[in-house]
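How a chain folds remains the central question behind the approach discussed here. In the encoding step, the backbone of a single protein was reduced to a row of integers, each denoting a local shape. We regard such an encoding as a compact summary of how the chain folds. The sequence in question and its structure tokens are set out directly beneath this paragraph:

___
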Amino acid sequence: MRSKTVLLMSLAGAIVLLLASLSTNLPVNPTSPSGLLTSPTHFSHPYVPAPIPSGQSQAQSAVIAGCPLPPSQCGWSFNWGGYAVMGAVGSVTDVKGSWKVPAVAGASGSVCSDKQRTWESASVWVGIDGLSSPTVEQTGTSSDCFYGQLFYYAWYEFYPAGSVKINSLTIHPGDTMMAEVSYSGGTFTAMITDVTTGASYTSPATAVPAAQMNSAEWVVEAPYYYGFLGLTKVTSVTFTGATATIGGVTNSISGWSPNDIWLLMVDFNWPFVSTSFYVKDISSALGAGGNNFNAKWVSSGP
């Protein structure tokens, strides 16, 4: 199972290079007559692997990147950073995790530190699928710099269906969030609670055609909107209480070793310079208990 994942990551390299070169568009400014959005929302995308830099083996690249797991359990991505666990098709039925909503670093009042007044986003979520399958069932929060304005919000998404912003939750930086995505009786349900305020939301039970139920994730994401957005400069994110139920058994991330995978988020310069690492977000080794880790912003990247 692990080797299959690594093979998929490697074989996708050439295709990803082409996609990356076509996916660097900035979103249309919503203040213009042709603007498409007046406020941000999360736009998910399944995992997009980045190829191993030219001239390096996966083992060499894993060492240079500081991967805390064996090289076969290390992955590089243009849009996801964090951890995932692989399972057999149809086996993953629940994923849980908690985090504190990261604050946008350098923000002052309602003005972001983004001098170009473009859209940058940092989405933090737990979910099922998307690592090697075409759907993602997920819920989380976003910390966005949207054309000079600061936005924090919660959402859920059963990709490829559109994201749903959870307007009943008012999200603040530093709020502790607890989230869960579960599958039962042919439908998925996303549940998210702002532990700090006590407010919570449960999505309608929803069938997701083509869902494979073969992976669980705890991710910081640079979302996709006419190309992958820059990753907002945010304070570090610490996931805690990270568990996945696979085949009816619940374990921490490390409890599913060797099927746990460390994911490093890199930017589009990554494949072209073998001696440099263009990292956007890097995650620590798993802490005691194997159910917690820290994800640190490194750069916004293209």
About this structure: The chain is about 10% helix and 35% strand. The radius of gyration is 18 Å. The CA atoms of residues 116 and 147 lie 8 Å apart.
